[in-house]
Amino acid sequence: MEDKPKETEVMGHPGIVGIELDEGHISRSTPEHTHSPSKKPLSLESRQELKQFVEKWRLFIDDPSLLDQPMRMVAEFFREVAIEEGLIGE
Predict the structure, then answer these.
(1) Predicted TM-score (pTM) above 0.70
(2) Residue bearing the bigger pLDDT, 51 or 1
(3) In Å, what is the CA distance from 80 to each residue of 2, 6, 51?
(4) Where in the chain are the domains?
């Protein structure tokens, strides 16, 4: 059986760069990580990092209820981002 990654590993992953978690709210803190027609899209490198992050943490991204807060919010946020970027389906 494959070992699940530890919840604390997520905060050190390059795919989480630009993410701020404050008082129960998660947001993208840099224009590169903001999805909006007026903002610059993710660079190829950032998109690849996000893809690798989603692959590694897919279990939790698909079912955030497996996590405690605030990690559940992080997983929910990455689920939304992965859907926006077309990396996973709804």
Answers:
(1) no
(2) 51
(3) 26, 21, 13
(4) 7-84
